[in-house]
């Protein structure tokens, strides 16, 4: 829906500059009850009540798993008719119809929508009292604001989730069901407030493998997540511009910047490229070979994906050396797990949780969106692989002449502090004080300057 609105705003501004655009929504009266069962099928729709009573349903009901699929036929039919008739744009979700149009076309679009619905479903099929129009409207738990150009969580949903987190005693035993409810809210609203994303996994991990019955203490990481979500949920309402999502951020974009990376357990290799608009060739900007033995991964192969994810995070960090910010990025590597974590800004491994926080906060501070991830085979990723094993950029020149350029820069990431913060052994959740310190240190590390070192021939690892 947000993509539809953003696209319509853009097109309207080009074709009809100065025209006011509004949102509207309409509700089908009774929703599923607008469906009538055939008389011969009614005996199949019996439901046993108490005291030997049985109720037979004559129309669509809430609570039966088959109803949504049946009603989807109606939803698709209405959407098809409206798309071809309206002057604006429209989406239909079950019994909710949501549209965007120019102010001058509003009466026409509302009238056509009413006519289509009543023609298909009968008179009074539209709940007129629920029709809303304005620059900001709620839709399926979210709110779209045309003036601020953002998508926020609906206020009543914020209050409901906030009540759930605030009423949870983090120092008392909890249940699987209680954490499932919190994790569900966190996962859904983390799509809007991306500061939440790295901490969603801790809530799921807290009850994974536990029995449904009984109580258990809230783990330290989950406890921190609950405290953090209390703050972030409040901020989504108080400081919407900073803690919600821009309307256009859901729109797929073609990334101009490319980060190619690989990691061994002792080092990472990163290359940066730029893709000029309308040109298929990629411009090689520079590279880096970085020692990460300070993380102490040794020969523990279970930490390989964590090392790869840290390499990707450092690769995004290095973009600032080339002046990149407020942009979309393509990540390329041979670790499917690391690429997936980067795309979702959420990790499945506890060993990568610190790096995930750094990655998320860094991307938001630089306004960088991971628009695309591309999996490379080990053979295709040979360049970053060589760098991750200690080679310098010039060593790659035997197979790719671009690396023989003596002016190709090496990027000095100055990554010591970042590596310390991303280290899985770094304790960031055992106490409130350590978490706050960890968060502040990341904010400072993001601002650390990055250097370009010219003349890469024979340059050792920075």
| Annotation field: number of helices | 14
Biggest sheet strand order reads: 13-12-11-14-15
On the 0 to 100 scale, the average pLDDT is: 90
Helix content: 25-40%
Q: List how many beta strands DSSP finds.
A: 17
DSSP strand content? 15-25%
- Structural class by SSE content: alpha+beta
User: Measured on Cα atoms, how large is the radius of gyration?
Assistant: 27 Å
- What is the rounded distance between the termini? 46 Å
Please state the oligomeric state of the protein chains shown: single chain
> Uncertain segments of ≥5 residues (pLDDT<50)?
455-460
Instruction: Report on the biggest sheet.
Output: 5 strands, mixed
Summarize the entry for a quick read.
The chain has 462 residues and is of the alpha+beta class. The chain contains 14 helices and 17 strands.
List its traits.
single chain, 462 residues, alpha+beta, 5-stranded mixed beta sheet, 4-stranded antiparallel beta sheet, 14 helices, globular, disordered C terminus
Task: Characterise the protein shown here.
By secondary structure, the protein is of the alpha+beta class. 38% of the residues lie in helices and 19% in strands. The chain contains 14 helices and 17 strands. The chain has a five-stranded mixed sheet. A hairpin with a 2-residue loop joins strand 7 and strand 8. Helix 4 packs antiparallel against helix 7, helix 5 packs antiparallel against helix 6 and helix 9 packs across helix 10. The radius of gyration is 27 Å and the shape is globular.
């Amino acid at each position: 829906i947000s993509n539809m609105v953003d696209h319509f705003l853009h097109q309207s501004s080009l074709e009809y500059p100065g025209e006011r655009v509004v949102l509207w929504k309409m509700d089908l009266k009774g929703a599923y009850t607008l469906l009538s069962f055939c008389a011969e099928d009614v005996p199949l729709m019996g439901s046993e009540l108490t005291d030997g009573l049985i109720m037979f349903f004559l129309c669509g009901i809430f609570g039966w798993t088959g109803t949504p699929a049946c009603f989807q036929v109606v939803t698709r039919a209405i959407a098809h008719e409206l798309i071809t008739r309206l002057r604006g744009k429209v989406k239909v979700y079950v019994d909710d119809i949501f549209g965007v149009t120019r102010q001058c076309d509003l009466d026409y679009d509302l009238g056509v929508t009413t006519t289509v619905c009543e023609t298909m479903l009968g008179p009074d099929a539209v709940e007129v009292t629920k029709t809303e129009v304005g620059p900001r409207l709620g839709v399926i738990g979210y709110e779209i604001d045309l003036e601020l150009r953002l998508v926020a969580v609906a206020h009543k949903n914020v209050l409901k989730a906030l009540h759930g987190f605030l009423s949870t005693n983090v120092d008392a035993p909890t249940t699987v069901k209680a954490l499932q409810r919190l994790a569900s809210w966190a996962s859904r609203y983390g799509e809007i407030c991306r500061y939440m994303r790295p901490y969603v996994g801790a809530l799921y991990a807290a009850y994974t493998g536990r029995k449904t019955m009984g109580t258990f203490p809230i783990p330290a990481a989950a406890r921190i997540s609950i405290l953090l979500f209390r703050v972030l949920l409040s901020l989504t309402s108080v400081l919407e511009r900073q803690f919600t999502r821009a309307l256009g951020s859901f729109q797929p974009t073609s990334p101009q910047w490319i980060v190619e990376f690989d990691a061994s357990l002792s080092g990472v290799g990163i290359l940066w490229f730029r893709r000029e608009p309308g040109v298929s060739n990629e411009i090689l900007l520079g590279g880096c070979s970085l020692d990460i033995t300070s993380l102490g991964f040794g020969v523990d192969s279970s930490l390989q994906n964590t090392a790869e994810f840290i390499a990707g995070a450092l690769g995004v960090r290095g973009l600032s050396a080339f002046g990149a910010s407020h942009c979309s990025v393509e990540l390329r590597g041979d670790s499917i797990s690391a690429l997936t974590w980067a795309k979702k800004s959420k990790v499945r491994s506890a060993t990568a949780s610190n790096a995930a926080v750094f990655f998320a906060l860094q991307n938001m501070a630089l306004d960088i969106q991971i628009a695309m991830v591309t999996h490379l085979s080990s053979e295709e990723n040979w360049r970053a692989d060589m760098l991750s094993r200690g080679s310098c950029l010039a060593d790659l020149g035997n197979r790719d002449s671009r690396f023989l350029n003596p002016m190709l820069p090496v990027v000095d990431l100055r990554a010591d502090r970042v590596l310390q913060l991303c280290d899985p052994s770094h304790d960031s959740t055992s106490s409130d004080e350590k978490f706050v310190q960890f968060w502040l240190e990341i904010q400072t590390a993001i601002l650390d300057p990055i250097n370009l070192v010219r003349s890469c021939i024979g340059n050792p690892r920075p």
